[in-house]
Design a protein that fits this description.
Oligomer: heterodimer
Low-confidence stretches of chain A: 1-5, 60-64
Largest sheet of chain B: 6 strands, mixed
Number of helices of chain B: 10
Number of helices of chain A: 11
Radius of gyration of chain A: 22 Å
Largest interface: A-B, 36 and 39 residues
Chain lengths: 289, 292
């Protein structure tokens, strides 16, 4: 055996360098995907419609005009953003595993946490870009129609949409590390989206009527749904009150008052961090094959 | 360089690897040989830290289970089939994996030239043939000149000619003082590249020996290119494959896998079938040293 010792100088890429490299790759892939383009166009078109109709029906606009617009936009965000974020998150790792890309990536000098955080960061960037595009279109219409009397509210709505997207993306990644196939992950994400957006609303209404759930419990249950947290936080930002939500909203406003934004921020932070932490734990133990 | 002790890997109730202990010295090339399902790929994946396992594996003294990232920094890995980012450009792929390896100044063209892929840097990965993809994987594995190469059935998805070319390339590039651990079930590959062989059966080490000791009674095969006029190529395929030979078409005739001790057989069979043979060559890609 002839041994010619090769000159090897160990290169170690740092944690953050690897996260950024993977995030960059993920962002580019996401932006080029047809789903991303479709969601972005749909969100922008629907946002444009909502803004135009609200501004047109409100005459000269003003805060009340923006109130109508924001109500429409809140519902639009609740429908589109969670679906976009969850399906993007759910597809990424499960699809990579299915195609053998995950094993190859993890055979490189990267840690699983770097891969997970890189994917989260890259997809966050793409979704934030998409949502920003939609809101940009809305802002242009509102500004043209004189409906941007309170830009602060509009910016709050945009930032809260980002937070909702990050939470839903974490949930999508959790689904992705659990699923073996991309199709199963995407299907599960759509099911969870339906549950959060529609079923939980109807379920809470039904249970309130059937079992006369107390208002404090109803409010606590609402915090378990990130879409509800987003909605309540947005409404509170507009009016500093949740009275519009009925007895549970009145209870929350009377009991917590100015502390409500802190409660919502804590709940939303938990929705971003906890699913991601759980995904990291599961991902560290699961086979990539 | 690679030390494995008491390795055990179970998938549910199935034991894929059972009490495996082995050592690969620096510069040594160790082949894992065995039938499909013997545990070769599982062992490779454990060595890369892709699977959780019982026992201990260290690469360059680094515990794979405790610091997999550091251990993998010492390893260049070539899988059975390159499965990544088909729409990625070839040069982009090199740059991406170079960055993950902490290499900031890698010139993709240089890395591609090393594996004879010059001129393909503008292509998408999906535009490469199977053999080219494997060469790209080898180029990525060699980025930063890691001291260890780990290969998992790297020629399994290639045709005979592709196999010969790839093994030739591996022999030239891979064995330059590197430690190699590779899984294969092809005797000719093992004879060409390994200094030692571990034979796995049902997840256990059955035998440890040199390639010549293992294949002493079974002569590895070799590829032969037979030049024919185009009209006769399909008929030659039919004749040779009907006699159990591994044969495929190429531009000037056929390429047939032939036992080293019976190299005249395909030519004789063709002549017996009245198929005119213009010429033939033995392909050099799988000539090896240390062969019995």
């Amino acid at each position: 055996m002839t041994t010619l010792p090769i000159q090897f100088s160990p290169h170690r890429s740092s944690f953050f360098a690897n996260v950024l490299t993977i995030a960059h790759r993920e962002l580019r892939d996401a932006v080029k995907s047809r789903w991303f383009v479709l969601y972005s166009l749909a969100f922008a078109a629907l946002g444009l419609g909502v803004s135009y109709l609200s501004a047109a029906s409100g005459g000269s606009g003003g805060v009340s005009g923006f109130g109508r617009t924001s109500a429409g936009l809140i519902n639009l965000v609740i429908l589109v953003v969670p679906l976009m974020a969850m399906t993007a998150g759910a597809a990424t790792i499960a699809s990579d595993r299915e195609r053998g890309m995950l094993a190859y990536l993890l055979a490189q000098p990267v840690s699983r946490l770097e891969v997970l955080l890189g994917k989260h960061l890259g997809l966050s960037g793409s979704i934030i870009a998409s949502v920003s595009l939609g809101f940009g279109v809305c802002a242009a219409v509102l500004a043209a129609k004189g409906g941007m009397a309170d830009a602060r509210l509009f910016i709050a709505l945009v930032l809260l949409s980002f937070a909702l997207a990050l939470g839903m993306l974490s949930l999508g990644l959790l689904i992705s590390v659990l699923a073996h196939k991309g199709s199963v992950a995407t299907g599960t994400a759509v099911f969870v989206w339906l549950t959060l957006v529609f079923v939980s609303d109807l379920g809470m209404m039904a249970s309130t009527l059937a079992w006369r759930v107390r208002v404090e419990k109803l409010f606590a249950f609402s915090l378990l749904n990130p879409c509800q947290v987003f909605k309540m936080w947005c409404l509170y930002s507009v009016d500093a009150s949740l009275d519009v939500l009925g007895p549970a909203g009145v209870y929350a406003t009377d009991t917590f008052g100015a502390r409500l934004p802190l409660i919502f921020a804590g709940a939303m932070a938990a929705w971003i961090i906890l699913p991601l932490a759980l995904a990291a734990l599961i991902f560290s133990r699961r086979s990539p094959v | 360089m690679i030390a494995i002790s008491n390795l055990r890997k179970r998938f549910g109730r199935f034991t894929a690897l059972d009490d495996i202990s082995l050592h690969v010295a620096p510069g040594e090339s160790l082949a894992l040989w065995g039938a499909n399902g013997a545990g070769k790929s599982t062992l490779v994946r454990c060595a890369l830290g892709l699977f959780r396992f019982d026992g201990r594996i260290s690469v360059g003294g680094i515990d794979v289970a405790k610091d997999g990232k550091a251990a993998r920094a010492l390893i260049g890995y070539v899988p059975q089939e390159l499965g990544f980012y088909d729409d990625l450009g070839v040069a982009e792929a090199i740059t991406y994996f170079a960055r993950l390896k902490g290499l900031r100044r890698t010139v993709p063209a240089d890395a591609l030239a090393r594996v004879e892929l010059t001129g393909h840097d503008k292509k998408r990965v999906r535009e490469l043939s199977g053999g080219m993809k494997q060469r790209l994987a080898l180029a990525i594995a060699l980025l930063g000149d890691p001291p260890v190469l780990v290969l998992d059935e790297v020629t399994a998805s290639l045709d005979a000619l592709g196999r010969d070319e790839f093994v030739g390339l591996l022999k030239r590039l891979g064995t330059q003082g590197r430690t190699m651990l590779f899984a294969s079930h092809r005797p000719e590959e093992i004879s060409a590249m390994a200094t030692r062989v571990i034979m796995l059966t049902s997840g256990r080490i059955q035998r440890e020996c040199t390639p010549s000791e293992l294949f002493g009674h079974t002569q590895p095969s070799q590829s032969m290119k037979i030049r024919l006029t185009p009209d006769w190529a399909k008929a030659a395929m039919t004749v040779l494959s009907s006699r159990g030979l591994n044969v495929h078409l190429n531009g000037v005739g056929v390429i047939v896998r032939v036992d080293r001790t019976q190299k005249a057989t395909p030519v004789r069979l063709l002549l017996e079938a009245n198929i005119p043979v213009e010429d033939f060559d033995l392909l050099s890609g799988d000539h090896q040293g240390g062969h019995p």
